[in-house]
TrEMBL record:
It is found in: Cytoplasm. Belongs to the ATP phosphoribosyltransferase family. Short subfamily. It comes from Dongia sedimenti. The keyword Glycosyltransferase applies. PANTHER family: ATP PHOSPHORIBOSYLTRANSFERASE, ATP PHOSPHORIBOSYLTRANSFERASE ATP-PRTASE. Pathway: Amino-acid biosynthesis; L-histidine biosynthesis; L-histidine from 5-phospho-alpha-D-ribose 1-diphosphate: step 1/9. Pfam families: HisG. It is an enzyme of class 2 (transferase). Heteromultimer composed of HisG and HisZ subunits. Residues 58-214 form the ATP phosphoribosyltransferase catalytic domain. This is ATP phosphoribosyltransferase. InterPro entries: ATP_PRibTrfase_cat, ATP_PRibTrfase_HisG, ATP_PRibTrfase_HisG_short.
Length: 220
């Protein structure tokens, strides 16, 4: 980007976006009206602040846009940050939104006689193969991961795997699919993320936005 171009703030689609909107407002950023129009196919939006534009992308892609410097700022869960572990991303503010956990779950009937301490090899359906492998390797368990993008909860019942690793919030999706949580791998909240090179190039402007978001999160 050049000095006259706006900063790009990458926001995740879906439920985090709803929680992020009041925070954005407190940080002094109001998206243009088209942003709230569900029929709109636009993905990039102006805001009430000329130096900030917003893009709306999938949660995993927020980290990718910011890591490669295509967006200077973003909102991403620490689940996404742990999965990618991009060195180019700095995550200075826990925004306190998107609270949930990343957990291992299995069919209720299986868990009755199951002891996670005795696992040596497991097959897991997940969007998070790196976190899953790291988590289990640390205690000598080999995790064979099958990558799915969603609807993970179907996989054990249909015989794709024995277990899943996925986000759990209310627990309703697990319950509806007759699964139970057997381990929590990480607690998750959303963070303000910043591209490190952009922070070095524009320390005052980006630093001011980091402080605006910090104040907005603290005011919640
Ligand atoms: C997430 C997650 C679970 C569900 C858990 O999916 O992957 O399926 O929410 O929430 P609960 O514990 O409150 O039921 P989401 O609905 O965000 O859609 P996704 O599968 O597209 O990620």
């Amino acid at each position: 980007m050049t000095a006259n171009e706006p900063f790009i703030l990458a926001l995740p689609k879906g439920r985090i976006l709803k929680e992020a909107m009041p925070l954005l407002k407190r940080a002094g950023i109001e998206p243009e009206p088209d942003f709230s129009n569900e029929d709109s196919r636009a993905l990039r939006f102006k805001t009430s602040v000329p130096e900030i534009e917003i893009i709306r992308v999938r949660s995993f892609d927020v980290a990718t846009f910011v890591a490669f410097g295509a967006a200077q700022l973003g909102i991403a869960g620490n689940d996404v940050l742990l999965e990618f572990d991009y060195p180019e991303i700095y995550a200075p503010v826990d925004l306190g939104i998107g609270k949930c956990r990343l957990s291992v779950a299995e069919p209720a009937e299986m868990s009755e006689k199951d002891d996670p301490a005795r696992w040596s090899h497991i097959r897991v359906a997940t969007k998070y193969p790196h976190i899953t492998q790291r988590h289990f390797a640390a205690r000598g368990v080999q995790a064979e991961c099958i990558k799915l993008q969603g609807a993970m909860e179907l996989a054990p019942t249909l015989g794709l795997c024995g277990r899943i690793v996925d986000l759990v919030s209310s627990g309703a999706t697990l319950k509806a699919n007759n699964l139970v949580e057997v381990e929590t791998i990480a607690t998750v909240t959303s963070r303000l993320i910043v591209n490190r090179a952009a922070m070095k190039t524009y320390p005052h402007q980006i630093g001011d936005w980091v402080e605006n978001f910090r104040a907005a999160a603290e005011a919640a």
